[in-house]
Amino acid sequence: MQTTRRRLLVLGLDSVPPEFLFDRFLPRMPRLKSVLDRSRYGTLLSTDPPITVPAWAAMFTGMDPGTLGLYGFRHRRPGTYFEMYAPTPQMIPFPPLWSILSRLGRRVAVIGMPPGYPPPTVNGVYISDFLTPEGAKDFVTPASLAPEIEAASGGYNFDVTFRAEDRPRVERELFDMTRKRWAVARYLWQKEPWDLFAIHEIGTDRLHHAFWKFFDPTHPHFVPGSEYADIADRYYALLDQEIGTLLDLVPEDVTILIVSDHGSMAMHGCFCINQWLEREGYLHLKTHPSGPGTPLENLEVDWDRTVAWGAGGYYARIFFNVWGREPHGLLPASEVPSIVQTMTRALEGVRRPDGASLGVRVLDPARVYRSVRGDPPDLMLYFGELHWRSAGTLGHPGLFLTENDTGPDDAVHSLDGVFVFADHPNRRPVHLPPQQIIDVAPTLLKHLGIALPPTMQGQPIAGWLG
After folding, report:
1. Same domain, yes or no, for 128 and 253?
2. What pTM does this model have?
3. Which among 202, 247, 316, 438 is placed 20 to 30 Å from 53, CA to CA?
Protein backbone atom coordinates (compact mmCIF):
# COMPACT_ATOMS: atom_id res chain seq x y z
CA MET A 1 0.00 0.00 0.00
CA GLN A 2 1.36 3.42 -0.97
CA THR A 3 1.98 5.46 2.19
CA THR A 4 3.77 8.47 0.67
CA ARG A 5 2.82 10.58 -2.32
CA ARG A 6 5.12 9.89 -5.25
CA ARG A 7 6.76 12.76 -7.06
CA LEU A 8 7.70 12.77 -10.73
CA LEU A 9 10.38 14.60 -12.73
CA VAL A 10 10.02 14.46 -16.54
CA LEU A 11 12.97 15.45 -18.73
CA GLY A 12 11.66 15.79 -22.28
CA LEU A 13 14.41 15.83 -24.91
CA ASP A 14 12.91 16.60 -28.29
CA SER A 15 13.82 14.39 -31.28
CA VAL A 16 16.45 12.26 -29.52
CA PRO A 17 16.83 8.80 -31.14
CA PRO A 18 17.90 5.68 -29.21
CA GLU A 19 21.28 5.45 -30.97
CA PHE A 20 22.23 8.88 -29.67
CA LEU A 21 21.14 8.59 -26.04
CA PHE A 22 22.03 4.94 -25.51
CA ASP A 23 25.17 4.77 -27.63
CA ARG A 24 26.95 7.54 -29.52
CA PHE A 25 26.69 10.43 -27.05
CA LEU A 26 26.28 8.46 -23.82
CA PRO A 27 30.04 8.79 -23.03
CA ARG A 28 29.47 12.56 -23.05
CA MET A 29 26.58 12.27 -20.60
CA PRO A 30 27.74 10.75 -17.28
CA ARG A 31 24.84 12.22 -15.30
CA LEU A 32 22.20 10.79 -17.62
CA LYS A 33 24.12 7.51 -17.64
CA SER A 34 23.80 7.38 -13.87
CA VAL A 35 20.02 7.51 -14.31
CA LEU A 36 20.10 5.00 -17.17
CA ASP A 37 22.08 2.58 -15.00
CA ARG A 38 19.14 2.26 -12.58
CA SER A 39 16.28 2.39 -15.04
CA ARG A 40 14.02 0.51 -17.36
CA TYR A 41 14.75 1.95 -20.76
CA GLY A 42 14.30 1.42 -24.47
CA THR A 43 12.70 2.69 -27.66
CA LEU A 44 9.49 4.70 -27.51
CA LEU A 45 7.50 4.40 -30.75
CA SER A 46 6.10 7.76 -31.80
CA THR A 47 2.82 8.77 -33.37
CA ASP A 48 1.74 8.98 -36.99
CA PRO A 49 2.96 11.50 -37.93
CA PRO A 50 6.10 11.63 -35.72
CA ILE A 51 5.92 15.40 -35.21
CA THR A 52 6.50 17.37 -32.04
CA VAL A 53 3.03 18.80 -31.37
CA PRO A 54 0.90 15.65 -31.82
CA ALA A 55 3.57 13.38 -30.33
CA TRP A 56 3.98 15.20 -26.99
CA ALA A 57 0.24 15.70 -26.72
CA ALA A 58 -0.39 12.00 -27.33
CA MET A 59 2.27 11.08 -24.80
CA PHE A 60 0.69 13.02 -21.95
CA THR A 61 -3.00 12.47 -22.77
CA GLY A 62 -2.83 8.79 -23.72
CA MET A 63 -4.86 9.54 -26.87
CA ASP A 64 -3.92 9.25 -30.54
CA PRO A 65 -3.44 12.38 -32.69
CA GLY A 66 -6.67 11.93 -34.64
CA THR A 67 -8.72 11.75 -31.47
CA LEU A 68 -6.90 14.88 -30.25
CA GLY A 69 -7.31 16.61 -33.61
CA LEU A 70 -3.56 17.25 -33.95
CA TYR A 71 -1.76 16.50 -37.22
CA GLY A 72 1.31 18.72 -37.11
CA PHE A 73 2.43 22.28 -36.48
CA ARG A 74 -0.23 23.76 -38.76
CA HIS A 75 -3.77 22.88 -39.75
CA ARG A 76 -5.83 24.11 -42.69
CA ARG A 77 -8.76 26.21 -41.64
CA PRO A 78 -12.09 24.82 -42.93
CA GLY A 79 -13.60 26.67 -45.85
CA THR A 80 -10.24 27.93 -47.09
CA TYR A 81 -7.53 26.58 -49.35
CA PHE A 82 -4.38 27.94 -47.74
CA GLU A 83 -5.28 29.60 -44.45
CA MET A 84 -3.44 27.80 -41.64
CA TYR A 85 -3.58 27.97 -37.87
CA ALA A 86 -1.33 26.64 -35.11
CA PRO A 87 -2.94 24.37 -32.51
CA THR A 88 -3.13 25.59 -28.93
CA PRO A 89 -3.40 23.64 -25.66
CA GLN A 90 -6.92 24.99 -25.26
CA MET A 91 -7.97 23.03 -28.37
CA ILE A 92 -7.06 19.65 -26.91
CA PRO A 93 -10.31 17.85 -25.98
CA PHE A 94 -8.74 15.50 -23.39
CA PRO A 95 -6.77 16.54 -20.31
CA PRO A 96 -3.00 15.97 -20.23
CA LEU A 97 -1.25 14.61 -17.18
CA TRP A 98 -0.67 18.01 -15.55
CA SER A 99 -4.33 18.96 -15.90
CA ILE A 100 -5.47 15.69 -14.33
CA LEU A 101 -3.10 16.24 -11.40
CA SER A 102 -4.13 19.88 -11.07
CA ARG A 103 -7.79 18.90 -10.72
CA LEU A 104 -6.81 16.57 -7.88
CA GLY A 105 -5.03 19.36 -6.05
CA ARG A 106 -1.53 18.18 -6.96
CA ARG A 107 1.07 20.86 -7.60
CA VAL A 108 2.68 20.93 -11.04
CA ALA A 109 5.37 22.91 -12.86
CA VAL A 110 5.62 22.55 -16.64
CA ILE A 111 8.25 24.21 -18.83
CA GLY A 112 7.66 24.32 -22.56
CA MET A 113 5.67 21.15 -23.21
CA PRO A 114 4.01 21.43 -26.66
CA PRO A 115 1.48 22.55 -27.56
CA GLY A 116 1.98 25.20 -24.91
CA TYR A 117 0.94 28.62 -26.16
CA PRO A 118 -1.00 30.34 -24.78
CA PRO A 119 0.01 28.60 -21.54
CA PRO A 120 -2.89 26.78 -19.90
CA THR A 121 -3.93 27.36 -16.33
CA VAL A 122 -2.66 24.67 -13.97
CA ASN A 123 -2.33 24.22 -10.23
CA GLY A 124 1.17 25.62 -10.28
CA VAL A 125 3.27 27.00 -13.12
CA TYR A 126 3.21 26.59 -16.91
CA ILE A 127 5.77 28.27 -19.20
CA SER A 128 4.79 28.23 -22.86
CA ASP A 129 6.63 26.37 -25.63
CA PHE A 130 8.77 27.06 -28.70
CA LEU A 131 5.68 28.18 -30.66
CA THR A 132 5.42 31.29 -28.47
CA PRO A 133 5.33 34.40 -30.70
CA GLU A 134 8.37 36.64 -30.50
CA GLY A 135 7.86 39.36 -27.93
CA ALA A 136 4.84 37.68 -26.31
CA LYS A 137 4.26 38.79 -22.72
CA ASP A 138 1.65 36.14 -21.86
CA PHE A 139 4.14 33.24 -21.80
CA VAL A 140 3.62 31.96 -18.25
CA THR A 141 0.79 31.20 -15.89
CA PRO A 142 0.46 32.70 -13.42
CA ALA A 143 1.41 35.89 -15.29
CA SER A 144 2.91 37.36 -12.13
CA LEU A 145 5.85 34.95 -12.48
CA ALA A 146 7.09 36.51 -15.72
CA PRO A 147 9.60 38.87 -14.04
CA GLU A 148 11.02 36.00 -11.99
CA ILE A 149 11.46 33.84 -15.11
CA GLU A 150 13.21 36.66 -16.93
CA ALA A 151 15.47 37.33 -13.95
CA ALA A 152 16.35 33.67 -13.40
CA SER A 153 17.27 33.20 -17.06
CA GLY A 154 18.74 36.58 -17.88
CA GLY A 155 16.16 36.85 -20.67
CA TYR A 156 14.29 33.65 -21.51
CA ASN A 157 14.55 32.22 -25.06
CA PHE A 158 11.83 29.95 -26.42
CA ASP A 159 13.52 28.87 -29.65
CA VAL A 160 16.22 29.65 -32.20
CA THR A 161 15.89 30.37 -35.92
CA PHE A 162 17.62 27.18 -37.00
CA ARG A 163 16.98 27.07 -40.76
CA ALA A 164 19.64 29.64 -41.53
CA GLU A 165 23.04 29.81 -43.23
CA ASP A 166 24.49 31.82 -40.35
CA ARG A 167 25.47 28.77 -38.35
CA PRO A 168 27.78 30.62 -35.93
CA ARG A 169 24.70 32.53 -34.79
CA VAL A 170 22.59 29.35 -34.61
CA GLU A 171 25.27 27.66 -32.48
CA ARG A 172 25.57 30.65 -30.16
CA GLU A 173 21.82 31.00 -29.67
CA LEU A 174 21.30 27.25 -29.30
CA PHE A 175 23.77 26.87 -26.43
CA ASP A 176 22.54 30.08 -24.80
CA MET A 177 18.89 29.00 -25.00
CA THR A 178 19.62 25.67 -23.36
CA ARG A 179 21.60 27.20 -20.50
CA LYS A 180 18.77 29.64 -19.79
CA ARG A 181 16.06 26.97 -19.87
CA TRP A 182 17.79 24.79 -17.30
CA ALA A 183 18.60 27.81 -15.11
CA VAL A 184 14.85 28.45 -14.97
CA ALA A 185 14.22 24.76 -14.24
CA ARG A 186 16.58 24.84 -11.28
CA TYR A 187 15.02 28.05 -10.01
CA LEU A 188 11.48 26.70 -10.19
CA TRP A 189 12.41 23.30 -8.75
CA GLN A 190 13.55 24.96 -5.52
CA LYS A 191 10.36 26.98 -5.04
CA GLU A 192 8.34 24.07 -3.64
CA PRO A 193 8.13 20.23 -3.59
CA TRP A 194 6.25 19.74 -6.87
CA ASP A 195 4.22 16.57 -7.44
CA LEU A 196 5.00 16.81 -11.16
CA PHE A 197 7.86 18.78 -12.67
CA ALA A 198 8.19 18.53 -16.46
CA ILE A 199 10.60 20.30 -18.80
CA HIS A 200 10.81 20.18 -22.58
CA GLU A 201 14.12 20.88 -24.33
CA ILE A 202 13.76 21.81 -28.02
CA GLY A 203 17.51 22.35 -28.41
CA THR A 204 18.24 18.73 -29.30
CA ASP A 205 15.86 18.98 -32.24
CA ARG A 206 17.42 22.24 -33.42
CA LEU A 207 20.92 20.77 -33.16
CA HIS A 208 19.97 17.86 -35.42
CA HIS A 209 18.27 20.02 -38.02
CA ALA A 210 21.00 22.64 -38.22
CA PHE A 211 24.18 20.57 -37.91
CA TRP A 212 23.61 16.86 -38.68
CA LYS A 213 25.60 16.79 -41.93
CA PHE A 214 28.64 18.17 -40.12
CA PHE A 215 28.88 15.47 -37.42
CA ASP A 216 27.56 12.33 -39.16
CA PRO A 217 29.84 10.77 -41.81
CA THR A 218 26.92 8.65 -43.07
CA HIS A 219 24.84 11.71 -43.98
CA PRO A 220 24.32 11.88 -47.78
CA HIS A 221 25.66 15.44 -47.74
CA PHE A 222 28.36 15.02 -45.08
CA VAL A 223 30.84 17.89 -44.84
CA PRO A 224 34.24 16.49 -43.78
CA GLY A 225 36.65 18.56 -41.75
CA SER A 226 34.03 21.06 -40.63
CA GLU A 227 34.48 23.32 -37.62
CA TYR A 228 31.16 21.83 -36.46
CA ALA A 229 32.38 18.23 -36.49
CA ASP A 230 32.24 18.09 -32.68
CA ILE A 231 29.22 20.31 -32.10
CA ALA A 232 26.91 17.42 -31.21
CA ASP A 233 29.45 16.08 -28.70
CA ARG A 234 29.73 19.53 -27.15
CA TYR A 235 25.99 20.13 -27.07
CA TYR A 236 25.11 16.78 -25.51
CA ALA A 237 27.88 17.34 -22.95
CA LEU A 238 26.42 20.75 -22.13
CA LEU A 239 22.95 19.28 -21.83
CA ASP A 240 24.24 16.63 -19.44
CA GLN A 241 25.93 19.28 -17.29
CA GLU A 242 22.76 21.38 -17.15
CA ILE A 243 20.60 18.39 -16.30
CA GLY A 244 23.18 17.24 -13.77
CA THR A 245 22.98 20.47 -11.80
CA LEU A 246 19.20 20.00 -11.64
CA LEU A 247 19.59 16.39 -10.54
CA ASP A 248 21.86 17.57 -7.72
CA LEU A 249 18.74 19.14 -6.23
CA VAL A 250 16.46 16.12 -6.70
CA PRO A 251 15.90 13.73 -3.76
CA GLU A 252 16.41 10.00 -4.35
CA ASP A 253 12.72 9.20 -3.87
CA VAL A 254 11.66 11.27 -6.91
CA THR A 255 10.83 9.17 -9.99
CA ILE A 256 12.68 10.34 -13.11
CA LEU A 257 11.44 9.90 -16.67
CA ILE A 258 13.71 10.85 -19.57
CA VAL A 259 11.78 10.72 -22.81
CA SER A 260 11.69 11.94 -26.41
CA ASP A 261 8.69 12.45 -28.63
CA HIS A 262 10.28 10.91 -31.72
CA GLY A 263 13.74 10.38 -33.15
CA SER A 264 15.78 12.07 -35.84
CA MET A 265 17.70 10.87 -38.88
CA ALA A 266 19.57 12.25 -41.85
CA MET A 267 17.53 14.03 -44.49
CA HIS A 268 18.12 12.66 -48.00
CA GLY A 269 16.25 15.41 -49.80
CA CYS A 270 12.77 16.58 -50.76
CA PHE A 271 10.06 15.32 -53.08
CA CYS A 272 8.12 18.14 -54.75
CA ILE A 273 4.57 17.02 -54.12
CA ASN A 274 2.74 19.86 -55.88
CA GLN A 275 4.93 19.59 -58.96
CA TRP A 276 4.08 15.90 -59.08
CA LEU A 277 0.37 16.62 -58.65
CA GLU A 278 0.55 19.14 -61.48
CA ARG A 279 2.41 16.70 -63.72
CA GLU A 280 -0.16 13.99 -63.06
CA GLY A 281 -3.10 16.28 -63.82
CA TYR A 282 -4.49 16.63 -60.30
CA LEU A 283 -3.42 20.27 -59.89
CA HIS A 284 -3.89 23.00 -62.51
CA LEU A 285 -2.41 26.51 -62.43
CA LYS A 286 -3.51 29.71 -64.13
CA THR A 287 -0.20 31.42 -63.35
CA HIS A 288 3.13 29.65 -63.24
CA PRO A 289 6.16 30.18 -61.01
CA SER A 290 8.81 32.58 -62.26
CA GLY A 291 11.52 30.71 -60.41
CA PRO A 292 12.23 27.86 -57.99
CA GLY A 293 10.75 27.80 -54.54
CA THR A 294 7.46 29.55 -55.28
CA PRO A 295 4.76 28.76 -52.70
CA LEU A 296 1.54 27.43 -54.20
CA GLU A 297 -0.46 30.07 -52.36
CA ASN A 298 1.43 32.76 -54.30
CA LEU A 299 0.10 31.40 -57.59
CA GLU A 300 -3.35 31.50 -59.14
CA VAL A 301 -4.81 28.00 -59.03
CA ASP A 302 -7.44 26.90 -61.53
CA TRP A 303 -9.81 25.49 -58.94
CA ASP A 304 -12.41 24.65 -61.57
CA ARG A 305 -10.04 21.95 -62.86
CA THR A 306 -8.00 21.08 -59.73
CA VAL A 307 -8.77 17.80 -57.96
CA ALA A 308 -6.05 17.86 -55.29
CA TRP A 309 -3.20 19.92 -53.89
CA GLY A 310 -0.54 19.30 -51.29
CA ALA A 311 1.47 20.89 -48.51
CA GLY A 312 5.10 20.44 -47.51
CA GLY A 313 6.75 19.41 -44.27
CA TYR A 314 8.10 16.23 -42.72
CA TYR A 315 5.28 14.45 -44.53
CA ALA A 316 3.01 15.49 -47.38
CA ARG A 317 -0.54 16.51 -46.64
CA ILE A 318 -2.96 15.96 -49.52
CA PHE A 319 -6.25 17.83 -49.72
CA PHE A 320 -9.02 17.05 -52.20
CA ASN A 321 -11.10 19.80 -53.78
CA VAL A 322 -14.38 18.32 -52.60
CA TRP A 323 -17.71 19.64 -53.85
CA GLY A 324 -19.70 21.23 -51.04
CA ARG A 325 -16.69 21.43 -48.75
CA GLU A 326 -14.17 23.66 -50.53
CA PRO A 327 -15.14 27.12 -51.89
CA HIS A 328 -14.73 25.90 -55.50
CA GLY A 329 -15.03 22.17 -54.92
CA LEU A 330 -15.59 19.98 -57.95
CA LEU A 331 -14.87 16.41 -56.76
CA PRO A 332 -17.94 14.55 -55.41
CA ALA A 333 -17.15 12.93 -52.07
CA SER A 334 -18.27 9.59 -53.49
CA GLU A 335 -15.43 9.70 -56.03
CA VAL A 336 -12.64 10.31 -53.50
CA PRO A 337 -11.92 6.58 -52.82
CA SER A 338 -11.32 5.86 -56.50
CA ILE A 339 -9.07 8.92 -56.81
CA VAL A 340 -7.10 7.70 -53.78
CA GLN A 341 -6.58 4.30 -55.40
CA THR A 342 -5.41 5.83 -58.68
CA MET A 343 -3.13 8.29 -56.92
CA THR A 344 -1.65 5.57 -54.70
CA ARG A 345 -0.77 3.40 -57.72
CA ALA A 346 0.90 6.36 -59.40
CA LEU A 347 2.88 7.26 -56.26
CA GLU A 348 4.08 3.68 -55.93
CA GLY A 349 5.77 4.10 -59.30
CA VAL A 350 7.79 7.19 -58.37
CA ARG A 351 11.55 6.69 -58.74
CA ARG A 352 14.33 8.61 -57.09
CA PRO A 353 17.05 10.21 -59.20
CA ASP A 354 19.20 7.08 -58.74
CA GLY A 355 16.44 4.91 -60.24
CA ALA A 356 15.39 3.24 -56.98
CA SER A 357 11.81 3.35 -55.77
CA LEU A 358 11.07 6.37 -53.60
CA GLY A 359 8.86 4.22 -51.40
CA VAL A 360 5.63 6.02 -50.58
CA ARG A 361 3.34 5.19 -47.67
CA VAL A 362 -0.20 6.48 -48.07
CA LEU A 363 -2.08 6.92 -44.80
CA ASP A 364 -5.76 7.73 -44.48
CA PRO A 365 -6.42 9.48 -41.14
CA ALA A 366 -9.83 7.79 -40.90
CA ARG A 367 -8.07 4.41 -40.89
CA VAL A 368 -5.01 5.31 -38.83
CA TYR A 369 -6.82 6.72 -35.80
CA ARG A 370 -9.66 5.52 -33.62
CA SER A 371 -11.50 8.75 -34.36
CA VAL A 372 -10.79 11.86 -36.41
CA ARG A 373 -11.38 15.29 -34.96
CA GLY A 374 -10.42 18.78 -35.97
CA ASP A 375 -9.08 19.50 -39.45
CA PRO A 376 -7.07 16.55 -40.79
CA PRO A 377 -5.54 16.31 -44.24
CA ASP A 378 -7.35 13.92 -46.56
CA LEU A 379 -4.19 11.84 -46.95
CA MET A 380 -0.80 11.71 -45.26
CA LEU A 381 2.19 10.62 -47.37
CA TYR A 382 5.55 9.38 -46.09
CA PHE A 383 8.43 9.43 -48.58
CA GLY A 384 11.33 6.99 -48.31
CA GLU A 385 10.42 5.96 -44.75
CA LEU A 386 10.45 9.67 -43.87
CA HIS A 387 14.04 10.24 -45.07
CA TRP A 388 12.63 12.53 -47.77
CA ARG A 389 10.69 15.67 -46.84
CA SER A 390 7.72 16.99 -48.76
CA ALA A 391 8.38 20.21 -50.67
CA GLY A 392 5.20 22.15 -51.32
CA THR A 393 6.79 24.88 -53.44
CA LEU A 394 6.96 24.88 -57.24
CA GLY A 395 9.21 26.06 -60.06
CA HIS A 396 11.98 23.54 -59.41
CA PRO A 397 13.80 21.89 -62.34
CA GLY A 398 12.71 18.42 -61.24
CA LEU A 399 10.68 16.49 -58.70
CA PHE A 400 13.57 16.01 -56.26
CA LEU A 401 15.67 18.47 -54.26
CA THR A 402 18.86 17.75 -52.38
CA GLU A 403 18.12 20.56 -49.91
CA ASN A 404 15.03 21.70 -48.03
CA ASP A 405 12.94 24.24 -49.92
CA THR A 406 12.24 26.36 -46.84
CA GLY A 407 15.80 26.85 -45.61
CA PRO A 408 18.86 24.77 -44.65
CA ASP A 409 17.91 21.55 -42.88
CA ASP A 410 19.96 18.40 -42.33
CA ALA A 411 17.53 16.14 -40.49
CA VAL A 412 14.06 14.63 -40.59
CA HIS A 413 11.98 12.88 -37.96
CA SER A 414 11.96 9.16 -37.28
CA LEU A 415 9.46 7.02 -35.40
CA ASP A 416 11.93 5.81 -32.77
CA GLY A 417 12.19 7.93 -29.64
CA VAL A 418 13.47 6.95 -26.19
CA PHE A 419 12.30 6.31 -22.65
CA VAL A 420 14.28 6.00 -19.43
CA PHE A 421 12.15 5.29 -16.35
CA ALA A 422 13.96 5.33 -12.98
CA ASP A 423 11.81 4.99 -9.87
CA HIS A 424 14.30 3.57 -7.35
CA PRO A 425 17.96 4.43 -6.66
CA ASN A 426 19.03 0.79 -6.35
CA ARG A 427 17.37 -0.88 -9.33
CA ARG A 428 19.35 -2.76 -11.93
CA PRO A 429 19.01 -1.51 -15.52
CA VAL A 430 16.62 -3.41 -17.79
CA HIS A 431 16.43 -2.85 -21.56
CA LEU A 432 12.76 -3.33 -22.48
CA PRO A 433 11.14 -3.96 -25.88
CA PRO A 434 9.79 -0.95 -27.80
CA GLN A 435 6.75 0.71 -26.21
CA GLN A 436 3.94 2.88 -27.58
CA ILE A 437 3.90 6.60 -26.89
CA ILE A 438 0.21 6.75 -25.92
CA ASP A 439 0.92 4.29 -23.10
CA VAL A 440 3.11 6.78 -21.22
CA ALA A 441 0.33 8.83 -19.58
CA PRO A 442 -1.64 5.84 -18.21
CA THR A 443 1.60 4.33 -16.91
CA LEU A 444 2.51 7.51 -15.05
CA LEU A 445 -1.00 7.85 -13.63
CA LYS A 446 -0.91 4.30 -12.32
CA HIS A 447 2.56 4.87 -10.89
CA LEU A 448 1.25 7.94 -9.08
CA GLY A 449 -1.73 6.01 -7.73
CA ILE A 450 -4.32 7.92 -9.77
CA ALA A 451 -7.27 6.31 -11.54
CA LEU A 452 -7.17 6.38 -15.34
CA PRO A 453 -9.88 8.35 -17.16
CA PRO A 454 -12.26 5.80 -18.72
CA THR A 455 -11.81 7.37 -22.17
CA MET A 456 -8.02 7.01 -22.21
CA GLN A 457 -6.85 4.87 -25.14
CA GLY A 458 -3.40 3.98 -23.83
CA GLN A 459 -2.69 1.22 -21.33
CA PRO A 460 -0.13 1.06 -18.50
CA ILE A 461 3.25 -0.40 -19.48
CA ALA A 462 3.73 -3.38 -17.20
CA GLY A 463 7.50 -3.34 -17.63
CA TRP A 464 7.78 0.08 -16.03
CA LEU A 465 5.80 -0.75 -12.90
CA GLY A 466 6.41 -2.94 -9.90
Report:
1. yes
2. 0.97
3. 247
For the stretch 165-191, pLDDT in tens is: 999 999 999 999 999 999 999 999 999
Range of the domain at 298: 269-408
Instruction: Report yes or no on 338 lying in a domain.
Output: yes
Domain assignment present for 3: no
1 located within any domain: no
Does 149 fall in a domain? yes
Task: Identify the CA nearest to 373 among candidates 91, 1, 35.
Answer: 91
Number of neighbouring beta carbons within 10 Å of residue 394: 24
Q: Which amino acid type is present at position 180?
A: K
How crowded is residue 203: how many other Cβ atoms within 10 Å of its Cβ?
28
Q: What value, to the nearest 5°, has the Cα angle with vertex 415 and ends 466 and 216?
A: 115
CB 107 within 8 A of CB 448: no
In this structure, the dihedral spanned by the alpha carbons of residues 310, 316, 320 and 321, taken in order and rounded to 10 degrees, is: -20
Pair 280, 261 in one domain: no
Helix (H) or strand (E) holding 55: helix 52-61
- Residue 391 in contact with residue 312, Cβ under 8 Å? yes
Q: Using one digit for the tens of pLDDT, what is the confidence trace for 386-410?
A: 999 999 999 999 999 999 999 999 9
pLDDT digits (tens, 9 = 90+) for 359-384: 999 999 999 999 999 999 999 999 99
